[in-house]
Please model this.
Amino acid sequence: MTHAERLRKIAVGIAATSPLEAHQLFVLADELETADPWSHQDTTPPTGDAPYFDADLGAALRDEAIESVDSNVSDEWREAADEAYFEAAKRNPALHNDVLWEILEVEWGVPPPHDRRALGARTRAAMKAGIIEMMDDLPRVPSARPQVHKHPMPIYKSLIYDPDYEPRRML
Model:
């Protein structure tokens, strides 16, 4: 049953005693269907042998989503993000995403991709390349970027930090 269908079911149940509230719920259900691209999806938890709790499936879906986001950014942005990771890791013994966005957008003037989650794919690439590693033993630090609402971000250890490194501009 979708969210909109649930609202309509509630509205039918209260229509006899509260017609005004029922009408408002019907209107809200209609608005939800037009405003929410996911409202058509069934939100009823699966039953039986459906993979409701399946860590392997979750990991596969995560990897698929990361690949999809990464494949939908320009090659130029992907290269700039990779270079920003190298730059940030050379400059800082530890870092998190705010450092990357500052280098990309403030220092280098690189416009953000259509989906900012693309930086996550580049984070994984930097980890795979041996540039950084996640520091799981440290608590996450809230982001200072207003658009992410102080969301806690992981801290990464630079594996290529050089205290004598001179910052450079994007090529």
